[in-house]
């Protein structure tokens, strides 16, 4: 889209107000799921009127491509380390809305200890994990979320039968109630509801909130539009979509 | 009015100094010999509403949570040692790239690996140059407990004035020993300020009202530019920060001992006890930036250098690099991980 066409009037119709114009078109691949999540998140931030009091932390992985996505204070951190940065910020500014936006590798592999302990401490932050069942940014390697038989660049004959159910883990490792849900980019309305509930959970000071999002990665799945949807449906069978509360 | 002196351990004095410097937050993970810094902070935290404390799940988390706290404008700090210092390099690299004024107290213990929990000077290279950058960092090496108190206050000020990660490189002996310390009130305190979340009232149509902070670059040129800016900024403040101390009973002495930290105290005592007129001491107070100009001046008339450290080749490496071109012979007395007493030094310089 040429930048000229992004006049205020047009963009206000389709874009959340808190989106940053100069960084568009965005840097994600065509067909990527990230922008859908970021659109829903932007709409909620507009609705809750918290643009000026939000800190958005992005990991290394494709989430880093959102480092200048919003007119929202944003910090891009290191691979797996977004949760602790956001925890430190929240401890120091409890009135601000603090969000960690992380890939499934960042959350469940290299940063798993931070996720587990933040949940156990019931830190009052919101973590959003983009589950695209692989390591997107590095070219599609096996992730803790890759499903049995999935071809990745490090499982060329198909991934093993072990996989990670992040939200279920997060919900169950503590008796303390947390808001936990799994959404999917092919149901943005429902996803938006989950994200909004998670952010409101934080705003109400209730502690840890967590949303995993099943998300398209056509580049590394090596899929066209039809097969992208088909693979997402396959993921949905293994990773049930919905709220996973222990409340 | 003279400030009172109190008998106190190094670990306790760290917390007193940090509070005097205006520190509000501590993030850390237990490790000997620096654990009591955290337990002392916790005691303060329990009684003062404004303080922040989090015992994290590991040193990476401590380092990064400190960064998150600092971003909001809080004077946050941490302390670690040995293997913890290794893990925390992840966070220090980010701080180095993004000019985040972290303050870390390093209680050196014996290496490599888990090593000893007691003492060494083996974390010089790691502290000053750890990470995948050039060492855009400031490192102080106090030589006794009073000095530790003074350097910590200075470290907070320097970190927030110049925005480079700042370290106070101490050791197990200094932290665990009790000594008399004068709790001087700092003459100046540099204020902290937020790097994000600066105001709740912002014109949302103005992009420049929002901070988008990153450390990942798409092109070599962008990366080079960031490095050039960091290097230029670091070089500009180098001479303002580099500090050293010279000590001798005789200005004409022809042998120069170079030592830092607690070993420099050992050397001083050895010179005094033996009434040595042949030997002088040069002590870098800042390990990095290294006081190269002062050292060059101190070398005038010197016929022999002796580098003494409780590491094999860490201070030595820095000395060689900083006096490149000098023809003065260098002798060494290096004991990695093993304390050096004044008696040994007296024997050495006899
Ligand atoms: C400490 C460290 N190890 C490895 C990398 C290389 N790396 C960059 S992104 C990435 C994987 C990202 O995968 P994921 O977190 O699932 O996010 P995605 O790209 O799929 O959104 C890796 C391994 C790195 N940047 N830092
Ligand atoms: S690699 Fe995958 S996750 Fe990353 S931007 Fe491209 S489609 Fe999106």
Would you kindly provide a written description of the structure presented here, covering whatever features stand out?
The complex is a heterodimer of chains A (247) and B (350). With 247 residues, chain A is an alpha/beta fold. Chain A has one domain (34-243): Rossmann fold (3-Layer(aba) Sandwich). Chain A has helices spanning 8-14, 34-48, 82-92, 104-110, 112-121, 166-172, 188-203, 218-221, 225-238, and strands at 54-58, 73-76, 97-103, 126-131, 179-184, 209-214, 242-243. In chain A, helix 2 packs across helix 7 and helix 4 (104-110) packs across helix 5 (112-121). The relative contact order of chain A is 0.15. Residues 1-9 of chain A have low confidence and may be disordered. Chain B is of the alpha/beta class and 350 residues long. Chain B folds into two domains: 5-182, Thiamin diphosphate (ThDP)-binding fold, Pyr/PP domains (Rossmann fold); 245-349, Rossmann fold (3-Layer(aba) Sandwich), CATH 3.40.50.920. In chain B, the strands form three sheets. A seven-stranded mixed beta sheet of chain B has the order 3-2-4-5-7-6-13, sandwiched between helices. In chain B, strands 10-12-11-14-15 form a five-stranded mixed beta sheet, sandwiched between helices. A two-stranded antiparallel sheet of chain B has the order 1-8. The termini of chain B are far apart. At the A-B interface, strand 2, helix 3 and helix 5 of A face helix 3, helix 4 and strand 9 of B. Strand 2 (73-76) of chain A pairs parallel with strand 9 of chain B, so a sheet runs across the interface. The site of thiamine diphosphate has 16 residues of chain A, from helix 4.
């Amino acid at each position: 889209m040429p930048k000229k066409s992004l006049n205020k009037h047009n963009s206000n119709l389709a874009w959340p107000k808190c989106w940053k114009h100069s960084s568009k078109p965005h840097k994600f691949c065509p067909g990527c799921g990230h922008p859908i999540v970021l659109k829903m998140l932007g709409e909620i931030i507009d609705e809750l009127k918290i643009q000026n009091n939000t800190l958005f932390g992005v990991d290394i992985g494709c989430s880093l491509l959102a480092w200048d996505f919003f007119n929202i204070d944003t910090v891009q951190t290191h691979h797996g380390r977004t949760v602790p940065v956001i925890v430190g910020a929240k401890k120091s500014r409890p009135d601000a809305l603090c969000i960690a936006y992380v890939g499934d590798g960042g959350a469940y592999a290299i940063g798993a200890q931070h996720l587990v302990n933040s949940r156990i401490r019931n830190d009052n932050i919101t973590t959003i994990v983009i589950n695209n069942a692989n390591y997107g940014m590095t070219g599609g390697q096996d992730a803790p979320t890759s499903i049995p038989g999935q071809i990745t660049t490090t499982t060329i004959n198909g991934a093993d039968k072990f996989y990670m159910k992040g939200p279920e883990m997060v919900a169950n490792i503590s008796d303390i109630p947390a808001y936990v849900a799994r959404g999917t980019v092919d149901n943005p309305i429902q996803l938006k509801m989950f994200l909004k509930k998670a952010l409101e959970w934080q705003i109400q000071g209730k502690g840890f909130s967590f949303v995993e999002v099943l998300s398209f990665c056509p580049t590394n799945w090596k899929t066209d539009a039809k097969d992208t949807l088909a693979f997402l449906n396959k993921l949905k069978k293994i990773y049930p979509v919905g709220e996973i509360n222990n409340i | 009015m003279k400030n009172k002196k109190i008998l106190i351990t190094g670990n306790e004095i760290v917390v007193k100094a940090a509070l005097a410097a205006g520190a509000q937050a501590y993030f850390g993970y237990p490790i000997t010999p620096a654990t009591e810094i955290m337990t002392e902070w916790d005691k303060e935290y329990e009684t003062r509403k404004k303080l922040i404390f989090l015992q994290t799940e590991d040193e990476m988390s401590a380092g990064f949570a400190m960064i998150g706290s600092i971003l909001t404008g809080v004077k946050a700090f941490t302390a670690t040692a040995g293997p913890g210092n290794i893990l925390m390099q992840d966070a220090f690299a980010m701080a180095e790239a993004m000019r985040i004024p972290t303050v870390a107290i390093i209680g050196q213990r014996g290496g490599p690996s888990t090593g000893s929990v007691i003492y060494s000077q083996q974390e010089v290279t790691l502290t000053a140059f750890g990470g995948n950058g050039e060492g855009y960092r400031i490192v102080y090496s106090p030589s006794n407990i009073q000095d530790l108190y003074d350097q910590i206050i200075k470290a907070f000020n320097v970190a927030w004035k110049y925005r480079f990660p700042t370290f106070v490189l101490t050791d197990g002996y200094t932290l665990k020993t009790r000594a008399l310390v004068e709790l001087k009130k700092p003459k100046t305190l540099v204020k902290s300020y937020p790097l994000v979340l600066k105001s709740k009232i912002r014109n949302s149509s103005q992009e420049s009202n929002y901070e988008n902070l990153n450390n990942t670059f798409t092109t070599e040129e962008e990366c080079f530019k960031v490095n050039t800016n960091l290097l230029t900024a670091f070089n500009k403040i180098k001479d303002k920060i580099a500090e050293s101390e010279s000590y001798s009973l005789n200005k004409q002495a022809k042998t120069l001992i170079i030592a830092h930290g607690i070993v420099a105290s050992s050397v001083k005592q050895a010179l005094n006890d033996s009434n040595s007129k042949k030997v002088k001491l040069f002590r870098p107070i800042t390990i990095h930036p290294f006081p190269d100009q002062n050292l060059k001046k101190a070398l005038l008339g010197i016929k022999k250098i002796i580098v003494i450290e409780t590491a094999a080749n860490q201070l030595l490496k820095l000395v060689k690099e900083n006096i490149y071109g000098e023809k003065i012979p260098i002798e060494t007395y290096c004991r990695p991980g093993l304390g050096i007493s004044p008696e040994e030094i007296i024997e050495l310089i006899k």
